[in-house]
Amino acid sequence: MSGKERQSVGDMRAKISNEIVQLQTEYYGRGPVRARTYIDDDLVVVVLEETFTQAEKTLFERGEVDAIQDIRRRFQRHMADSFTKVIEDATGRRVRAFLSDTDVDADVSVETFLLEGEHA
Predict the structure, then answer these.
(1) What is the pLDDT of residues 41-69, one digit of tens each?
(2) Separation of CA 43 from chain center
(3) Which of 80, 104, 111, 119 has the fewest Cβ atoms within 10 angstroms?
(4) What CA–CA distance (Å, rounded) separates 96 from 39?
(5) Which CATH architecture is the domain 3-115 placed in?
């Protein structure tokens, strides 16, 4: 991979991380403390750390893990089109599948996208 290709992949990763953080901030009222994007062929994975709102932290402290998972899954369904658009705009490829999950104990969310077509 040439320096230019590495730079463009690096630019894509930074753009995706920044825009996903912006969306999380918009939808949840705060963004994650850390975000990292990985791109490999037809796979894009965004790892978001320390994402919980104060309300979610309170629920966690009270043992309401299922409630947090339910809220997060509902939001992700509503955010899917926005998240998918970020990936498609950054990569120039259509997303064929979007999967999302949160490890409540670790306060880590993972957004996974499978892309259509061949890498240019």
Answers:
(1) 999 999 999 988 888 889 999 999 898 88
(2) 13
(3) 119
(4) 15
(5) 2-Layer Sandwich (3.30)
